[in-house]
Amino acid sequence: MRWSLVSIIGLFAVAAASEERVRYDGHKVFNVVPKTDVHIQFLNELEELTEFRVDFYIPASVPGRRVHVRLAPKDYVKWVPYMETLGMEVTVLVHNVQE
């Protein structure tokens, strides 16, 4: 079977793309403690909002149970004060995910 030049180039492009690594420089993981069912609902709907890009390591399920959230620097500068104004406890677990 003959491989065309286009097929070979395509295979190299796929291989090169699969080797690209995502970097998480400056991303932080936060521990958040929702206190009410409204907090739980808000956190669960947060993934659908385009204002913040969040990644839940431990999702919101029950008031008083911790939630772990990863955020990029551009997002956490707005997100943390917002969570605190809603009455949720927020602490940093990991200061730089990339390290």
What does this structure look like?
With 99 residues, this protein is an alpha+beta fold. It has a single domain, classed as Metallocarboxypeptidase-like (Alpha-Beta Plaits, 2-Layer Sandwich), CATH 3.30.70. The chain has helices at residues 5-19, 37-46, 73-85; strands at residues 28-33, 54-58, 67-71, 89-94. Strands 2-3-1-4 form a four-stranded antiparallel beta sheet, with helices on one face. The chain is globular and about 40 Å long.
Walk me through the topology.
Layout: H1 5-19, E1 28-33, H2 37-46, E2 54-58, E3 67-71, H3 73-85, E4 89-94
Summarize the structure.
By secondary structure, the chain is an alpha+beta fold.
Distance between the termini: 47 Å
Task: Classify the secondary structure makeup into a structural class.
Answer: alpha+beta
The CATH topology label is Alpha-Beta Plaits
CATH superfamily: Metallocarboxypeptidase-like
Helical segment tally? 3
Mean pLDDT over the residues: 83
Number of domains: 1
What percent of the residues sit in helical stretches (DSSP H or I)? 25-40%
Any guess at the CATH architecture?
2-Layer Sandwich
| C-alpha geometry | globular
Low-confidence stretches: none
Strand order of the largest sheet: 2-3-1-4
* Rg on CA atoms, Å: 19 Å
